[in-house]
């Protein structure tokens, strides 16, 4: 029996990086996987790979900032799979540059994906979980939900919002058997990290390397499974020591 045997997991941003690594690990632990992502080519490729390995899996092309698309995807999945037990609310984008040069439109785009989209996905997950009797939600925030950093103000503000949204949802739905926690990664080697900055980011990390998406996936599994049964509203920092400095 896997840790997620026969659970249905809805994973946003599952086409790449941390989301794809988590989809693979969840599948190994017995879950049925739904990948919801903008990127249909990469998302479908992950689903095909999971199916080849015997996992029940589906892809939905979803922009997490579009309310109608998020609502439709949750409705479709609930109909097709019966219920949704786990939401890994993980789709996100980066943004970088001096704040005094940040255009309002760019601010809004970042906050729209990294905070508004997280709200929409969490809300739909909660609606379905209230109908089925409970579940777990893992929101991907960032270590930058806890500390500040130069030149990533919009991202950091959104991730700080995700951390406190997580606390609030954890409190609000605790008595309905819905646990909500946040995962706060440090610098992880995925396409979101600009290649030219990777060496410096590894150097800035006390363990002197970037994290791998598979290392984050193990923490996501912990938060999504009964192993974290007494945790809700919490955020788990997995950053190779960056924020401990
Ligand atoms: N890699 C890091 O260093 C790092 C650190 C802290 C937090 N994070 C967070 O981890 C999460 C996953 O990022 P990753 O590192 O795996 O990057 P990634 O770029 O590999 O994956 C992000 C995925 O999200 C999808 N996506 C983006 N906007 C979307 C939207 N509006 N609707 C649906 N899908 C959308 C992309 O298509 C992509 O597949 C993000 O929330 C990111 O902010 C990453």
Automatic annotation (TrEMBL):
<comment type="similarity">
    <text>Belongs to the short-chain dehydrogenases/reductases (SDR) family.</text>
</comment>
<dbReference type="InterPro" id="IPR020904">
    <property type="entry name" value="Sc_DH/Rdtase_CS"/>
</dbReference>
<dbReference type="InterPro" id="IPR051122">
    <property type="entry name" value="SDR_DHRS6-like"/>
</dbReference>
<dbReference type="InterPro" id="IPR002347">
    <property type="entry name" value="SDR_fam"/>
</dbReference>
<protein>
    <submittedName>
        <fullName>NAD(P)-dependent dehydrogenase (Short-subunit alcohol dehydrogenase family)</fullName>
    </submittedName>
</protein>
<dbReference type="Pfam" id="PF13561">
    <property type="entry name" value="adh_short_C2"/>
</dbReference>
<dbReference type="InterPro" id="IPR036291">
    <property type="entry name" value="NAD(P)-bd_dom_sf"/>
</dbReference>
<keyword id="KW-0560">Oxidoreductase</keyword>
């Amino acid at each position: 029996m896997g840790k997620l045997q026969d659970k249905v997991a809805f994973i946003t941003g599952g086409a790449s990086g941390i989301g794809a690594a988590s989809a693979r690990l969840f599948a190994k632990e017995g879950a049925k996987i739904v990948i919801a992502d903008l990127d249909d080519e990469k998302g479908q490729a992950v689903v095909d790979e999971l199916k080849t390995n015997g996992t029940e899996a589906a892809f939905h092309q979803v922009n997490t900032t579009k309310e109608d698309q998020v609502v439709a995807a949750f409705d479709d999945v609930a109909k097709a799979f019966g219920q949704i037990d786990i939401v890994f609310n993980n789709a996100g984008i980066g943004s970088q540059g001096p704040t005094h040069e940040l255009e309002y439109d760019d601010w809004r785009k970042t906050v729209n994906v990294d905070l508004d989209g997280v709200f929409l996905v969490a809300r739909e997950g909660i609606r379905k979980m209230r109908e089925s009797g409970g579940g777990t939600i893992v929101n991907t925030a960032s270590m930058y939900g806890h500390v500040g950093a130069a030149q990533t103000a919009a991202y950091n503000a959104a991730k700080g919002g995700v951390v406190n949204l997580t606390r609030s949802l954890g409190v609000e739905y605790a008595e309905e058997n819905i646990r909500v926690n946040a995962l706060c990664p440090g610098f992880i080697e995925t396409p979101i990290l600009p290649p030219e900055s990777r060496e410096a980011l590894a150097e800035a990390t006390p363990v002197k390397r970037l994290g791998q998406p598979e290392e984050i996936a193990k923490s996501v599994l912990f938060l999504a499974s009964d192993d974290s049964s007494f945790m809700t509203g919490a955020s788990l920092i997995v950053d190779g020591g960056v924020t401990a400095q």
